[in-house]
Amino acid sequence: MGAGTGCPPLxxxxxxxxxxxxxxxxxxxxxxxxxxxxxxxxxxxVPAPTPTPTPTPTPTPGDDDEVQTLGGSDLKHVTVxxxxxxxxxxxxxxxxFGSHRANARSSNLLAWNTVTVPFATATIGDAAPNVAxxxxxxxxxxxxxxEVNFPAFDAQAWAKRGNPAYDIKGNLWAxxxxxxKKLGKWCMxxxxxxxxxxxxxxxxxxxNITGPxxxxxxxxxxxFHTGNAYKDTDLELVLGTQTSLPxxxxxxxASISKSSYPNCIDPCVFYDESGxxxxxxxxxxxGIFMLELDEATGLRDYNVTYAESAISDPxxxxxxxxxxxxxxxxxxxxxxxxxxxxxxxxGGLAAGGVSSDYNNGGYQMRVFRSKNPDGPYVDSKNANAVxxxxxxxxxxxxxxxxxxxxxxxxxxxxxxxxxxxxSERSQGHNSAIAAEDGRAYLVYHTRFQNKGENHEVRVHQLxxxxxxxxxxxxxxxxxxxAKTAKIAKxxxxxxxxxxxxxxxxLHKYKLNxxxxxxxxxxxxxxxxxxxxxxxxxxxxxxxxxxxxxxITDNGQTYKGVMVEQTLEPSNDRTxxxxxxxxxxxxxxxxxxxxx
Length: 595
Prior knowledge:
By secondary structure, the chain is mainly beta.
């Protein structure tokens, strides 16, 4: 971005200063500042001229303040499981960090290259995982205005309690990386997974985004359900000295009805709009919880207390989603234009097709939103993300009311890339970013219809429809000019260019992952009178002067946007739409392929 020709130099100075701050907030802050600094009015010796009304020009495809210079041929895919995206203003690069120490970076979100990120100890600059998590650097933390001892938590030894044959190399899962402004450090929150819930989320820090990262200490721990194991954790630092383990923690996972507490993996750390630092985390069993962190340390804020209730626990924090062993993991929260959006992955992460395992496949991203960082989070049907009893929430027998907006799921025979064996399935464990370029992006990993358990990262642009719900572009981001921030005030596809033949795809909730079912498109025609005929019948309309696009059918309304997209992996461009039916939570995609 650059300063506009009509803005004072202070705007450019503000942009440079903001490079030091959290990149997740930069876009919003800059937008507010620019509106203030560059708006009309103010003292002047020259009287303002009387404006002359002019007709609204008819927009043309691609008419924007940018020119698309990249395309599908510039894509370079990478394999990173559970990708968490972050922007580094120093290198001007996007980084994704994933499970099993897989990491990559890109300057444009199209072409990715892998990067190695080392760990460290006090004496080793490139430490092996089996020594990197044994001795925390932090020995004291503050509670109640005084310094208190911090447990010397050996994360590897803790994880091994669940299985004597434990190997930490295959159990470093789903890290999330953020720049802590107060610490002046890059903070990596890593899941050290262990069997039987002997897991922990630990903090590592570095001066550079590429490491080396030094273990600071645990943020939250699970697995203290037997004996005096809790004595080796920070439980007593949170609750005070205990003569024995509180009964509520003794058998939390013995049955579905008692699944009250989380497996401590899958962190997402973010700043809210007031500058507080939060972490969501958890997986299946007890659901997803939220803790407030201490920005001064990057660790848990031990001065914040939590009540004991159905949606709160004194140690684990506030429950924001899941519970009762209902599937759900990989929570990610991103603030975009007025809402905190919670992404969840329901189902199993495998490619599917194993009839003996109901959890083999079915990964599907669901979306909720809230005005507050710690919820409550609801979907477009106003259903809460927290479960009140056990449900099946994925697959053909789903009975939870299709909870969570289905932003998209397994699909194929779509465009020129997602076809045949390369049809996508089991997409999930995503992250998202409201970027400095005025766009928002969804970053996820996907398996394929006939490629075994091989997986790759995909990036789709995100937009908000008229009701403020997110919809994802129907093709990968390939440098398109459309911006999330301009959808409400710019028409990227002229109304006269809408009519034609389209492929239309409706993303279903209840896909059968055991048979590797996936959504496929039908052929339709959109005529100049606003009618839709063919494999789907209905009406279409455009909100003139904007990119808002609507389809109606038998009382059902799908709202979203119409933009120009690239048919990857080619450089061919065409009008495409992405819509949401708020009353059902289903997503509809379409793209034009003929006149």
